[in-house]
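Batch manifest line 414
LIGAND: protoporphyrin IX containing FE
JOB: complex structure
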Amino acid sequence: MTTAHTYSSIDISSASFWATTAVEREKTFKILRERDPISWHPPAAGGILPAEDGDGFWAVVRHEDIRYVSNKSELFCSGRGVQMENFPQEVLEATQSFLAMDAPRHTKLRRLVSAAFTPRRVATIEQQIRSQAARIVDELLETGDCDFVHQVSMRLPMWTICEMVGVPQDKRFLVADAADQMVSYADPDVRGDREPIQIMGESIFALASTAVEMVRARREDPQDDLMTSLVQAEVDGETLTDDEITAFFCLLAVAGNDTTRNTITHSVKALQDFPEQRQWLVEDFDGRIGSAIEEFVRWASPVVAFRRTATQDVEIAGQRIAAGEKVVMFYPSGNRDAVVFENPDEFDLSRTFNPHLAFGGGGPHFCMGNMLAKTQLRAIFKELLFRVPDLRVGEPEYLLSSFVHAVKRLPCTV
Ligand code: HEM
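JOB STATUS: finished
ARTIFACT:
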């Protein structure tokens, strides 16, 4: 596609921009919010496919505009990809399921799994999540000084999603690791001497072979889990194919692991950096954890960006967008928008008005796992704050990524 737009002089596409910290990047997003809220940029570096000539994306950085794009799914569709970069069609089909679909197919497939994520269903597994959080903290205390991400943050999300879907015990680390690699391929440390497409291929193979094994097992011997529901489900009178179930599985494994893991990691660091906030929370944990969790998620903003594609010529905030152009929403930027948030750069657990966009800006794709994530955050912080009061964390090692705000390692002493 060739367009006549001039690229913004403000860089949010280079690897060096994404290699800085979120605090540094926010300075750039603040400038864009104030001076050029809908701006045109070259494709982000490090993509899996080479960028086409004249390709680029519109950056949407203000709270109000992110909500608009999210809610107008007839104008801004997901079916042509939801990431900043172009991915090979095979990768999209194998991994993204209904995340990268539009109505009516999106509505039907989302409905199939939504029953597993209702507040009532989440409440029924809450006790199990609490027991699991207690076990994770038992093991942290036994282990002593360690990498907090590996020992704590990754374990509860991994356990929860694997338990719901029905992943066998011996496959859980493999699944969490493969899901993690799928969002980490841009980082040189993760990549080593592999090409991004190779990392993607290896991760898809690991997840797909696990899913196919589970599908076979559930067809012979149904269980009370999500995989059994998928195997038995019918859409438009047809059962799902193995490929469709595999894509479902990839989506849930990625969506359910990394996001909550990174929220736990960023929040544990923030509670240490802002001891008065930690104190405030501990003084009335049960009464205050609700608002605290909203702030944990706003602060962490673990998903950085999702993309849509304009279905017709349209305007956002006075800027004309042509049909077929990419529109990328930057959630961390919306979550620091001073028009909506008082003192947006402060970690303030007592915020009473906190309409953050960390789970998306509303609309049909709004995060399905938000209740589940909140239940996990409540459980793990109750254990950590009261049973490991002397926990100290060091400096986070951030992942280089324009998609997720992730921490690779966080040393801790217990
Ligand atoms: C703190 C944790 C989490 C955050 C910040 C988060 C964030 C998001 C965001 C930003 C979206 C896209 C929203 C949009 O396009 O409008 C999304 C979608 C989704 N999330 Fe989450 N998520 C979290 C946890 C989870 C968990 C635990 C699950 C469970 C599997 C999950 C499952 C999904 C699914 C299935 C979708 C796709 C929904 C659709 O396309 O209809 N998420 N999430």
